[in-house]
Amino acid sequence: MTMTPVRPEQSAVRRRLTVRTVPGRIRTGVAVLLVLVGLLTVALAAAVGNARSGVQAIGHDAGPQVVVTGDLYFALSAMDAQVADILLTGRGAGRDAAARRYDQFRGQAGAAAVQAAQLAGDDPERLRTVREVLDGLGRYQRLAGEAMLLARQSGYAAGEPTREVVATYRRASDLMKIELLPKAYNVALDSGATVRQAYETRRSEVLSGRNWVLGTGALVLLALVAAQVYLARDFRRTLNPALALATVLALALTGAGFLMLSAQADDLREAKEGGFDSVLALSRARAISHSAFADQSRFLLDPGRADTYAQTYLDKSQTVLYVEPGEGEPGNLATYYKGLERIVDAYPRGTFLGFFGDEARLASPSVRARLAGVLTAYRDVQRDDRRIRDLVARGDRAEAVSLRMSRGTSGATARFDAYDRAVVALREAHAHRMRTAVRGGDDGLRGWEWIPPVAALAAAVLVLAGVRPRLAEFR
Amino acid sequence: MRRLVLAPAAAVALAVAGCSLGPANDDELVIGVKADQPGLGLLDARTKKYDGFDVAMAREIAKRLGYGPGRVVFRTTPSSVREAELKARNVDLIVASYSITPKRKTQVTFAGPYYVAHQDTLVRADDRSIGDVRDLAGKRICAVTGSNSWRRVTEERGIAARGVETPTYGKCMDRLDAGEIDAVSTDDLILAGLAAGRRARIVNAPFTDEKYGIGLPKGDLARCEAVNRALTEIYQDGTATRLLHRWFRDSGLNVTTHVPQFEGCS
Questions:
Q1: Where are the domains of chain B?
Q2: What's the CATH number for B29-116+211-251?
Q3: DSSP per position, B115-136
Q4: Which chain A residue has the Cα nearest residue B157?
Q5: Residue of B3, B220, B261, B263 to mutate, interface with A, max A Cβ within 10 Å
Q6: Rounded distance, CA A76 to CA A99, Å?
Q7: Model ipTM?
Q8: pLDDT at A19
Q9: Looking at residue A104, what is its pLDDT?
Q10: Which of B1, B4, B261 comes nearest A185 by C-beta?
Q11: What's the pLDDT tens digit per position in B197-246?
Q12: Within 13 Å and on the Cβ side, how many CA atoms surround B193?
């Protein structure tokens, strides 16, 4: 066999492996077969577990957390915008409507904060952040209430708040801007990070699990065919029906497992890239837009900080849709309006940056049509902004305030609402895709907690049943 | 029969062995910082040590990423080479008053911001004529070669201030002392560092948001998310407040000690 002499311990091992009797060989073969079936079961169960974790994270845990915290940010921004509007209006028209909206957004913010706390679950850092938002919300409401009370008591004309009112509002608004909003936003981002990580690791594990299923399944089939051949040759039987059935079962299990895992990988990708990514981006775009819209109100309310609010309005607008100033042009609102007109006119041609730019790059034809609507509505909002700032520059504050506050179809608030509805509708289209994919993933996994062990057990029984009569021949 | 069943078993064993882990983690973290920005990132020519708010922040982040003091290497990264250094992977992180902008985001992944600075105005301590940026109309402001800050006053805001060409911010301070200019306008954290030990005052009338981000090679999302988590911790446990006070308390600047709104890793 070999040139070197066999050492005693080696020959002992070999003796154990080299089974000389026929029943011994059969028993060894059966043992190997059962181990292989066990490996296939383990590979399948592990891949199923990974798929389930992935669907759970995107569809049921961190995914919804992103939406809820995004809504929290939006409701907080909208609350602060309404307070600015109420203070801006003074005893003028539109105060009651703004007050109703304030109550509505306050309710939404409270509900979203509670829900976010529930969804934060066992992540201590995230839970702490949500708690801080809830605490801050209480302080904010006190300060805002104080400012609104002062406004009611002094009863000034629209656009002419008293110094005291502005000072109190500044404290409320700074609290919102510096403490509450960043925390709400960061929780949304952190949940988004959890989804991304879950997606990347789980999906690649599902794909490698699929290869393991294919590999172990092939080994099981190979071993079963080998067993069939061995029995046919050495025992002169044509076909062992039990083994044949086990082969069919193993083939079905491997095939079905492979297809199911492929579908899971596709569902995960669709949920993440077709749905979740855009839901997150549009939630952020919506949140930032509300925050910018509040800056427009603050710009009117607080002339002492008008420059700052104009600048933050521009920065936020640039985040939503970035406009590169032309050669030699300064980056200010005037060049932003101009560049935006150019981009919206050209769409769907041309590329741009910002949240809407990301959306435009990924968009399917149906999304493109909706996005075109969003962009037009966004341009309308910016045209109003330009008009408001022009009026202020000309010294016509009253007209600027009335344009901002008017809820008729030509009012800035109404047009902002139309824009907001368009963004929400687009986000909903993606959320629908996400839900469909998640449901597909959930449905695809149904039954797979028991299919692998039951099928493996059945295969094992069939293998044993198949060799039993042959072993019996040696008794 | 024996060969037939043993061969597949060997195949499984091989497949298991082949499924090894990826390459080991890097031993050290290379962080790009500035060497000439007092208060933020300054290299001591004698001790060869970097110090400043950016540097201290970078150390805290590194610590929370699992890199102790012995495993952090600082590297001078001037503004002009930041993107190139990240692209070439010569640095793992950049913490160097690096403003996040939509354009830079196409080339760099940004964690943070770790601080939102604001453009503000520095005047002589006894000058009461300047209260905010609008008061710069008709005044002489420092126009540092290669810096855009003064244009944000004159061009973006359309304020009729006169830019006086000056090679560096350090020279601006000399000119301010000598009365050759009336004001320096740039990020408040930079102004705070410049004002240290001089008879100058920050007016505390900020008019922009400058998001100081942490630059990472484009696409390094896992580390970016880890940095954001570290920043949340740094603010939650009071470290950020301590660092801000240590570096900027004496400057008279109002610092924000709450965690900034992150940009999101992309």
A1: 29-116+211-251, 119-202
A2: 3.40.190.10
A3: EEE-EEEEEETT--S-SSGGGG
A4: A332
A5: B261
A6: 15
A7: 0.84
A8: 61
A9: 93
A10: B261
A11: 888 999 988 888 899 999 999 999 999 999 999 999 999 999 999 999 99
A12: 21
